[in-house]
Design goal:
TIM Barrel; 12 helices; about 30% helix; binds beta-D-glucopyranose
Length: about 425
């Protein structure tokens, strides 16, 4: 999961290509000209010449049909009057740790009773969706109250374009754009539609549209821009069903807090949602996903004094205003509070990987303060952000920063010592 470590408000590694006519256009990606050795047949006299630039690689961004069917109510907080779904697999991970490390057992046990998001991060994982939904129905029955599962839909082609730790299975070269639609989004939509009385929340593609706001200077992002936009518009158009409340990922204060960045992301959201069938297709936005920003306080002021959003609540409020100003009022926000209990733990706001000294944050709950729909543990606390092994293909230098915990496994894998540290540092305490 990437956090732009630039002073993103002032300098933006921006795009030459903005959004004009994106919904139906072809993406023509500019290839960076490379220096190539001359033909070795000029033997004995080898010189390096600059080869003419290769013709740009064209990635056709498939068109998107705006949705016209019914969608979930836009004026309803889906968490109101409901309980959160508890993931039994998360409880198993915690139990595994408890069995090995019985110290602090009382606190550790309490973590099991807190909900965490269900990440659909590969095509293979889609098979788990009906199992989760059936289990949610059982929990509803047992509790006598609607139970809401929170999914994270996370398998975009060329995923994690400005970082490495969460690079995904689908690429533009391997037909990822079409597979994302037919093997991933369409299948998830079918499962959601098969459970029409189940209230569902889904957060779409963390970091993706934010990368288009500030990181188009990174080749993998710029060549993916149109495919990202159309794939997310497609996901929204298919997943916005009467029982499904969608939230787009909106990065966090330390990335998009600056006025110019908020403006950019608000415009991108509007364009993508227009292509998907309109802003009413989503209930709102999720922020701080897998990040560490505190809810209230001056942490951010010390790290980036020019950022008008020193903390995550201020960011949600100001983003809500930026969105309202361009015709998207009254959106709800989810803030990921899984690991933001303690501030003052980073030397740079741009550090995002397995930050040492972090603690569990506020427990998930509905409508804690405006404009929030919920605090929620989107990143399951204890799951790694990325491997610390510098030889691994997905090694990202951020996972060896001066703030990163050593010894971390691959993104998504259980990182036991880190989990125990989060529990020890929980704030509020468990
Ligand atoms: C990983 C996913 C994982 C998620 C939740 C992401 O960083 O890339 O594979 O499911 O974190 O832990």
């Amino acid at each position: 999961m990437y956090v732009d470590e630039l002073d993103a408000g002032r300098v933006t590694r921006t795009s030459k290509r903005r959004s004009s006519g994106f919904a139906f256009s072809l993406l023509v990606a500019a290839c960076v000209p490379r220096e190539q050795p001359a033909d070795s047949s000029s033997a004995g006299n080898t010189v390096l010449v600059t080869a003419p630039p290769e013709p740009p690689k064209a990635f056709a961004a498939m068109p998107v049909q705006p949705a016209t069917g019914p969608h979930a109510p836009t004026d309803q907080n889906p968490f109101a009057g409901a309980r959160f779904y508890l993931d039994p697999d998360y409880a198993k991970k915690v139990d595994g740790t408890l069995a090995k490390k019985p110290d602090n057992a009382d606190s550790v046990k309490k973590v099991k009773n807190h909900p965490t998001a269900l990440w659909i991060d590969t095509i293979a994982r889609v098979a788990q969706v009906p199992i989760w939904l059936e289990d949610a129905a059982k929990q509803t029955k047992a509790a006598g109250k609607p139970t809401v599962p929170v999914f994270v839909v996370y398998d975009l082609p060329n995923r994690d374009c400005s970082a490495k730790a969460s690079a995904g299975e689908l690429t533009l070269e391997n037909g990822g754009e079409a597979r994302y639609r037919t093997e991933f989004i369409d299948k998830i939509a079918e499962h959601f539609a098969n459970h029409p009385s189940q209230r569902i929340v889904a957060i779409l593609e963390p970091d993706s549209l934010p990368n288009l706001a500030t990181n188009l200077g990174v080749d993998k992002c710029s060549i993916s821009e149109q495919v990202y936009r159309n794939s997310i518009a497609y996901a929204v158009s298919k997943l916005s069903l009467p029982n499904v409340f969608l939230y787009l990922d909106a990065a966090h204060a330390g990335w998009l807090g600056w006025d110019s960045n908020r403006q950019k992301i608000a415009n991108i959201f509007k364009e993508v949602l227009t292509a998907a069938g309109g802003p009413d297709r989503v209930r709102g936005f999720a922020t701080n996903v897998s990040n560490f920003n505190i809810l209230h306080g001056d942490d951010g002021k010390k790290l980036e004094p020019s950022n008008p959003c020193p903390d995550e609540i201020t960011y949600a409020q100001k983003l809500s205003e930026s969105l309202a100003a361009i015709g998207m009022p009254n959106k709800g926000f989810i803030i990921d509070t899984s690991r933001n209990g303690r501030g003052g733990i980073r030397s740079k706001w741009g550090n995002w990987c397995n930050i040492r000294g972090a603690g569990l944050g506020e427990r998930p709950r509905a409508a804690p303060e405006a404009p929030l729909d919920a605090y929620f543990w989107v990143k399951p606390p204890g799951d790694s952000d990325g491997t610390a092994d510098s030889r691994a293909a997905r090694f990202d230098a951020n996972c060896a920063s001066d703030n990163a915990s050593p010894g971390a496994p691959e993104a998504g894998q259980w990182f036991e010592p880190y989990f125990l540290e989060l529990v020890k540092n929980a704030n509020p305490p468990l």
